[in-house]
C-alpha cells in the first residue's frame, strides 16, 4: 500500500482583493512556519486577480499555489477565460476543475471537466477534480451512480501514466457552505467507492496511489475524525480557509 501524502487545500472562491489575499497568505505562513510543513502538502487557491500577489508571498515556502478553474484551450479568442499556460506562468501547481459551483452556475459538464483536465496536464498543472452529489440525489439513493458517471466521463480517454498528479475531491453538494457535513462514515463510504471506481478504470496501483480528499464544511472540529478514515487523504476547505488561524488549525490537525 503506497503512502499517500495528506493534502489540505483552501479554496478562497470569490473573496479577497489581491492585497487582502496577500496579507492572509502572509498570516498563514507565519502560523505554519516558512519552511517545510512536515507530513502534509498544503495548497491555497485565491481568485485569479490575486494569484500573482499570493504567489509572490508563497514563493519561499512549501505552500503551493492553485487556481480555481482553467480553460481547455492553450490560447485563442475566448474572452474572459484563462489558459493553463497562463496559470503555470504565475507559478500555479494545482488547479480546481469541476467544482460544484462551476457546474451549478456556469453549466460545466463532465465532458468539459475532462477537457480541462487534459489541458491542465499538458502544462504541468495537477488537476483537483471535484465530484459530488446533491441532497436530492442522495435522498433518492443515487449517490454512487452520480459519482460513477462523474468519474467515468470526467476521466474518459485519460491514461493512468499521464494522471499521476490527479487529486479527486469528493464534495457532497449539500454540505458545501451549508454548515452540514457528511459524517466521517458517510464520507469514507463515498471515498471507498471512488477508489474502487478508479481501480476499475485505471488499475489497482493507480487507485491505491491517488489522493482522494473530502470537501464540505470542513472545520478544525471535524478534520481529525475525517482524516482517521482509511480512504480520506485530506480536505478541500472553503469558508474555513479564509481565516489564516482557522485554516492553520486544520492543516495542523495532527496536533489536536
Please explain how this structure is put together.
With 256 residues, this protein is α/β, with parallel strands linked by helices. It contains 11 helices and 8 strands. Strands 1-2-3-4-5-6-7-8 form an 8-stranded parallel barrel, surrounded by 6 helices. It is globular and about 45 Å long. The chain starts with 6 loop residues before the first strand and ends in a 5-residue tail after the last helix. The mean pLDDT is 95.
Give the tags.
256 residues, alpha/beta, TIM Barrel, 8-stranded parallel β-barrel, 8 strands, 42% helix, globular
The description of the largest β-sheet is:
8 strands, parallel, barrel
Mean pLDDT: 95
Question: Would you count the extended β strands for me?
Answer: 8
Q: Which spans of ≥5 residues are poorly predicted at pLDDT below 50?
A: none
